[in-house]
Amino acid sequence: MEPIIQESELPETPEPEATRRDADVTESSRANRGWWDRNADDYQIEHGTFLGDDRFVWGPEGLDEVEAELLGPPEELKGKDILEIGAGAAQCSRWLAAQGARPVALDLSHRQLQHALRIGGGVPLVEADAGALPFADGSFDLVCSAYGAMPFVADPVRVLKDVHRVLRPGGRFVFSATHPMRWAFPDEPGPEGLSVAASYFDRTPYVEQDEEGNAVYVEHHRTIGDRVRDVVAGGFRLVDLVEPEWPAWNTQEWGGWSPLRGNLIPGSAIFVCVRD
Predict the structure, then answer these.
(1) pLDDT band at residue 14, thresholds of 50, 70 and 90?
(2) What's the rounded Cα separation, in Å, for the pair 120 and 114?
(3) Do the Cβ atoms of 176 and 183 come closer than 8 Å?
(4) In the chain, what percentage of residues exceed pLDDT 70?
(5) In the beta sheet, which residues pair with residue 178?
(6) Fewer CB within 10 A of the terminal residue: the chain, N end or C end?
(7) C-beta separation of 138 from 163 below 8 A
(8) What average pLDDT does the chain have?
(9) Which residues sit opposite 172 in a β-bridge?
(10) Which stretches does the entry tag as region Disordered (predicted)?
(11) Which H helix or E strand runs over 208?
(12) How far is it, in rounded angstroms, from Cα 217 to Cα 117?
């Protein structure tokens, strides 16, 4: 397959070692910026068709905002200022713009935003860390994040507080992340992924590291209770927690997600939070 944008000049790296160890805010941010820059091309090639160019999908189950209306009825999005965090190639923001909203797509990865430019659509793009949003207080009516930032940050309360700051009163922050239950199971789509292999209560981050022990990818585990307490500590009121069921039409595998596992255990959790 031809590369979908100009071939990256980033060097090839040896296969990293997977482990569980602590990783702070700085290490997590640096590692994940580098990982997404290196892997953005492959990600868009593998998942671009499923995600579409202007579709708002909350996770691998395929729950679509057209049906879910977690940000509100589509007709009420017109004229709203909306920030998408961890936007990738800005597919969700492009859908929001089609509803008449004024979205801004933010991502940590320069390479992911290059894909947003490749697809086009005129959505404003911002390269920044979710924990240090470069916007004035009360800039947005809504903030959303479909598997962006929240699974990868070491200090989720810091992100939630900054989102609270840039939201206007009455606004909401809706974000999806890996369902905490999934951390107890191997990340395998087949039968081998159906047996508990680790403690649900082990919050030690999943880290992939290079030969020198430097993190090149970090993902952070929070229990459901942790996520709820984080939302409250960030100044929000949790109004809904959605656990999408795997639909019959979705026959694809996405990493550890699959129809087999999706029909038995939840894969995603979507938190609907309101700034009073």
Answers:
(1) confident
(2) 10
(3) no
(4) 95
(5) 268
(6) N
(7) no
(8) 95
(9) 142, 274
(10) 1-32
(11) strand 206-209
(12) 25
92 close to 148: Cβ distance less than 8 angstroms: no
By the 8 A CB rule, do 81 and 93 touch?
Answer: no
Cα distance between residue 28 and residue 147, in whole Å: 16
89-115 pLDDT, tens digit each: 999 999 999 999 999 999 999 999 999
For the chain, the distance separating the N- and C-terminal CA atoms, rounded to the nearest angstrom, is 49
Rounded to whole angstroms, how far apart are CA atoms 2 and 235?
Answer: 47
| Local confidence band at 13 (pLDDT 50, 70, 90 cut-offs) | low
Tell which residue, 119, 142, 143, has the closest CA to residue 55.
119
Paired tokens of 211: 């030969």
- Give the pair of three-digit tokens for residue 249: 């039409």
Model pLDDT, residue 1: 36
CA distance 4 to 235: 41
